[in-house]
Automatic annotation (TrEMBL):
<comment type="subunit">
    <text>Homodimer.</text>
</comment>
<keyword id="KW-0346">Stress response</keyword>
<feature type="binding site">
    <location>
        <position position="78"/>
    </location>
    <ligand>
        <name>ATP</name>
    </ligand>
</feature>
<dbReference type="InterPro" id="IPR036890">
    <property type="entry name" value="HATPase_C_sf"/>
</dbReference>
<feature type="binding site">
    <location>
        <begin position="98"/>
        <end position="99"/>
    </location>
    <ligand>
        <name>ATP</name>
    </ligand>
</feature>
<comment type="function">
    <text>Molecular chaperone. Has ATPase activity.</text>
</comment>
<dbReference type="GO" id="GO:0016887">
    <property type="term" value="F:ATP hydrolysis activity"/>
</dbReference>
<feature type="region of interest" description="A; substrate-binding">
    <location>
        <begin position="1"/>
        <end position="332"/>
    </location>
</feature>
<keyword id="KW-0067">ATP-binding</keyword>
<dbReference type="InterPro" id="IPR020575">
    <property type="entry name" value="Hsp90_N"/>
</dbReference>
<comment type="similarity">
    <text>Belongs to the heat shock protein 90 family.</text>
</comment>
<feature type="binding site">
    <location>
        <position position="38"/>
    </location>
    <ligand>
        <name>ATP</name>
    </ligand>
</feature>
<dbReference type="InterPro" id="IPR019805">
    <property type="entry name" value="Heat_shock_protein_90_CS"/>
</dbReference>
<feature type="binding site">
    <location>
        <position position="332"/>
    </location>
    <ligand>
        <name>ATP</name>
    </ligand>
</feature>
<feature type="binding site">
    <location>
        <begin position="120"/>
        <end position="125"/>
    </location>
    <ligand>
        <name>ATP</name>
    </ligand>
</feature>
<dbReference type="Pfam" id="PF13589">
    <property type="entry name" value="HATPase_c_3"/>
</dbReference>
<keyword id="KW-0143">Chaperone</keyword>
Length: 630
């Protein structure tokens, strides 16, 4: 052994190991699943590398478990790709994934409850410290010589040692020195049961060391079937096996919400096994989030995170795709333009949407779980996938004025079935929150006439609606736009309306002169009941919520020119129309405009000026009352 040095863990690893060592987990055995899964991945990577490097021996790949009761150690070994010295430092001494801090914060104070998060953040190896007081890793890369093996040793405190050793064979051995009280993991039958539970589906042998009592020789007994689960007939696979396979490929300790296993034969031959998780991962809302499909070709692992087969709005789908038609040495660049890839992509999108549709139709409760976790991601679909727009639109769920609940349970089919007779459009409003949408002044006329309005409060909703034009031949209509059809819903007597508009024409002209180019126009509106004024945008102009979305993504936002609309029946508007004093008239109009802007945008450029104006007018009212009473 030479070249030994002591290195310090990355600060995030220190925090992680402290949690592992000093916290009690309800499911400690998860460490074995993670280490066997890592060993399996190392073997799969070697098999893939052998496709382009002819002199690599990749037969008889395996994972082995050895128990030494005398020394109280448990060893998990593989003859996979192995690691070089710098790879050991990178993989075991630091955590490159940005999700580690999120993982640590996700654990919070209730470590037992959240132990299932292990693995989701690329920290599966460190779960070894749940049961170990010391961990040794002996590894040799397939590209290294016998004298270039690496030994990594740590007690899970602040540092670790790394040195160069002689290692006869390639691959990795992880030796766990078990803590006091963890003797159950020295019981071969307990280890067998764990492997049978978690690793039955591993596509290479998982073997445990046994002794031949006659001649005291070492034997390796295979525990699992070592047959890729997706290659077996569906009738041979039970529900628990599907669930455990999902946990293996996803590093998620929750059961999946649903899955779809399909084998296609004919012009193209492939097998797909797709899962929908029960819970969204921590970085689901990041559109750069890695996709969850693993690509196999003729049962040979090719790559993780195969984003070529599903669009971004389905990035939550986990699973595998195994093709018999793609070449074994295929690269990511070739995948991008390969016509077989494009055909598979279309088929997998269709299969994924069918799986979601089935969930919505057959199990509304589970679909509500799905929608809560992944609804905002699915809302990206209308912009990304015009070919499947109808399918996606039917899967969308909303809050509405009928349900009076923050839960998004209303489908567009539900809405259209409840539409009023002669109702031509599907009405909706976008806002910063459910309460802001529900209590918006734009809804006053619709509430009065009992017309249902969809309440959209997710940040992505405005962008989504810009790509939805109609459903079941009913066009969508935002209630915050300036549209004559909305005024027509008010059922105002036409003659009376004309007289009102004629009598208030000087009032409107006076406001136009006062506000000038600060507004795009000034109109009267008959769709308000309790509110004196609102601001609206024209149908083709940028909306308030779209501007906020642009701003949130760091894009330059053009100034929005609003149309100022006043309610001629409101007592305050009637009062303002009769004010002759220019200063007082200006104060009232500015007050109406500020209120309308605040209702539309949720903010004001100068809130202090707004409160001062209100206080000034209240003081004038108080003083006027005092004068009248004396």
């Amino acid at each position: 052994m030479n070249g030994q040095e002591t290195l310090h863990f990355q600060s995030e690893v220190k925090q992680l190991l402290k949690l592992m060592i000093h916290s009690l987990y309800s499911n400690k055995e998860i460490f074995l699943r993670e280490l066997i899964s890592n060993a399996s991945d190392a073997a799969e990577k070697l098999r893939f590398q052998a496709l382009s490097t002819l002199n690599i021996e990749h037969e008889n790949l395996h994972v082995r478990i050895a128990i030494d009761k005398d020394h109280r150690t448990l060893m998990i070994s593989d003859n996979g790709i192995g690691m070089k010295r710098d790879e050991v430092i990178e993989n075991l001494g630091t955590i490159a994934r940005s999700g580690t801090k999120s993982f640590i914060s996700s654990l919070g104070s209730d470590h037992t409850k959240n132990s299932q998060l292990i693995g989701q953040f690329g920290v599966g190896f460190y779960s070894a410290f749940i049961v170990s007081e010391k961990v040794e890793v002996r590894t040799r890369s397939v590209e290294s010589s016998r004298s270039e093996g690496v030994l990594w040793v740590s007690s899970g405190e602040g540092d670790y040692t790394i040195s160069t050793i002689e290692k006869e064979h390639r691959g990795t051995e992880i030796i766990l020195h078990l803590r006091d009280g963890e003797d159950i993991f020295l019981d071969p039958w307990h280890i067998r049961s764990i492997i049978s539970k978690y690793s039955e589906h591993i596509a290479l042998p998982v073997e445990i060391q046994t002794k031949n009592e006659k001649d005291d020789t070492t034997l390796w007994e295979q525990i699992n079937k070592a047959q890729a689960l997706w290659t077996r007939n569906k009738s041979e696979i039970n529900e628990d096996q599907y669930k455990e396979f999902y946990k293996h490929i996803s590093h998620d300790n929750n059961d999946p919400l649903t899955w779809s296993h399909n084998r296609v034969e004919g012009k193209q031959e492939y097998t797909s096994l797709l899962y929908i998780p029960m819970q969204a991962p921590w970085d689901m809302w990041n559109r750069e989030h890695k996709h969850g499909l693993k690509l196999y070709v003729q049962r040979v692992f090719i790559m993780d995170d195969a984003e070529q087969f599903l669009p971004n709005y389905l990035r939550f789908i986990k699973g595998i795709i195994d093709s018999n038609d793609l070449p074994l040495n295929i690269s990511r660049e070739i995948l991008q333009t390969n016509h077989i890839t494009q055909t598979l992509r279309l088929a997998l999108i269709k299969r994924s949407l069918q799986m979601i549709e089935s969930l919505a139709k057959n199990d509304p409760n589970k679909y509500q779980i799905f929608w809560k976790q992944f609804g905002r991601v699915l809302k990206e679909g209308p912009a990304e996938d015009k070919n499947n727009l109808d399918h996606i639109t039917k899967l969308l769920r909303f809050s509405s004025t009928v349900c009076n609940d923050t839960l998004q349970t209303v489908s567009l089919t539900d809405y259209t079935q409840r539409m009023k007779e002669n109702q031509e459009k599907i009405y909706y409003i976008t806002a910063d929150s459910y309460l802001a949408a529900k209590n918006s002044p734009y809804l006053e006329m619709f509430q009065k006439k009992s017309i249902e309005v969809l309440l959209l409060s997710d940040r992505i909703d405005e962008w989504m609606m810009s790509h939805l034009t109609e459903f079941n031949n009913k066009k969508f209509q935002s209630v915050s736009t300036s549209d004559t059809s909305l005024n027509q819903l008010a059922d105002i007597n036409t003659e009376r309306q004309k007289k009102t508009e004629q009598s208030l024409e000087p009032f409107i002209n006076r406001i136009k002169k006062l506000l000038g180019k600060r507004v795009k126009g000034v109109n009267l509106t008959h769709r308000l009941c309790d509110t004196p004024a609102i601001v609206t945008t024209e149908v083709n102009d940028m909306t308030t919520q779209m501007a906020k979305l642009f701003s949130a993504t760091g894009q330059e936002v053009p100034e929005i020119n609003y149309i100022f609309e006043l309610n001629p029946e409101h007592i305050l508007v009637k009062h303002a129309a009769n004010i002759q004093n220019a200063d007082q008239f200006s104060e009232w109009i500015e007050l109406f405009l500020s209120q309308a802007m605040f209702a539309a945008t949720g903010t004001l450029d100068n809130p202090h000026q707004f409160t001062q104006r209100i206080n000034k007018m209240l003081m004038q009212s108080v003083m006027s009352n005092l004068t009248m009473n004396t």
